Amino acid sequence: xxxxxxxxxxxxxxxxxxxxxxxxxxSGIPDYRGPDGVWTRTPxxxxxxxxxxxMADAAVRREFWRTYAGHAAWRAEPNAAHxxxxxxxxxxxxxxxxxxxxxxxxxxAGLAARKVLELHGSMHTTRCTRCPRRFxxxxxxxxxxxxxxxxxxxxxxxxxxxxxGQMLDAEVLGHARNIAAASGLFLAIGSSLQVxxxxxxxxxxxxxxxxxxxxxxxxxxYDDDATFxxxxxxxxxxxxxxxxxxxxx
Length: 249
Description:
Elements lengths: L2 H7 L4 E6 L18 H4 L9 H6 L1 H12 L10 H11 L3 E6 L5 H4 L7 E3 L2 E8 L5 E3 H6 L14 E5 L8 H13 L2 E5 L11 H7 L3 E5 L12 E3 L3 H13 L3
Parallel strand pairs: 1-2, 1-7, 2-3, 7-8, 8-9
Antiparallel strand pairs: 4-5, 4-6
Helix pairs in contact: 5-10, 8-9
């Protein structure tokens, strides 16, 4: 790794890490836009992840629930990159993870839930679209319904994730913006940075004076804003970055 980068980030007091699908591919979870991504292999699958289609068409909902019933995330384990970010917390570094992922692997790696903002929600809970009830997703899947309905009111059930066409939770996004603006080092890891408004957290961090480091296999729209752009393997480079940040602490 570039010695200039190590010198720049060593001892950074406040770290924010924006993580996307690329951080979880080494755990066996396919990304979306990569060569073997979900949208790449099956472009029509995006229809099942569009809120309007999901709400209007039972066949779309059945496709959606089939996708998640056998989702690789249920069997996945945190990889070295997840563990390295969690390890920063144990080293006394003020770290917050802002994740686009819904798999819960940052928490399973040992990072406290309050230090992880799930910007796009979580696949581990399911909510009713009509009433306020929420349920553990494994409980819903175990019931075996291909288009499950709320047992309380009969409303359509949806994984507690943000679908295309839905707005992000304003409170969560506001919190993420505050974290980005307060960070001294902003890491963007495994994200195409094509989905807004989350991707714009990079620009917000830079405008507030943070060092932006992007770790991603492919070019992103924010590469020109970054101090360093790394194309290296995420499982290798993220632990190295975290070790440099932790320094002698």
